[in-house]
């Protein structure tokens, strides 16, 4: 006997194919979502790692900036201390200069010359005085030129004047105080100052 299938097999095949196609499409979508999520996770982890490196480098940079600022402050303090040390050294070198100037003036002033006024401005020294003769002023200038303390004597004014009943010459003399050299400083031992005869 012949059997005839009257059921719509083509529609059933189509329905079965569309179910398989839908399942395959859902599977592909799930695989694509899993793949995308995996790539996103990998790149997100890399970004987090790089951000951690950037944060670490930023922290190190901030520490270095703080250290650089403290180094700049230390250099400024060092420069201030060196300036103070230079001032103290300069004062130390000049502390006995007044005594040396007066000793040298007393030693270099010839007989017949009387000093009345002394004025110092930096290394320049101006001396006013009286002399019995112009030759004594010239001898005074020669003594100053040969001195270890003074140099460059210049006679500004010499004029006739009366001191009591005597005729004298009144003069104004400028000279320069020599700065002590390293050899002069090494020649002087601590506690013993060089005294001019």
TrEMBL record:
GO biological process entries: type IV pilus assembly; type IV pilus-dependent motility
Keyword line: Membrane, Transmembrane, Transmembrane helix
Domain of life: Bacteria
Keyword Transmembrane in record: yes
Entry keyword annotation includes Transmembrane: yes
One Pfam family named in its UniProt record: PilN
Transmembrane spans: 20-43
Designated name of the protein: Pilus assembly protein PilN
Organism: Acidithiobacillus marinus
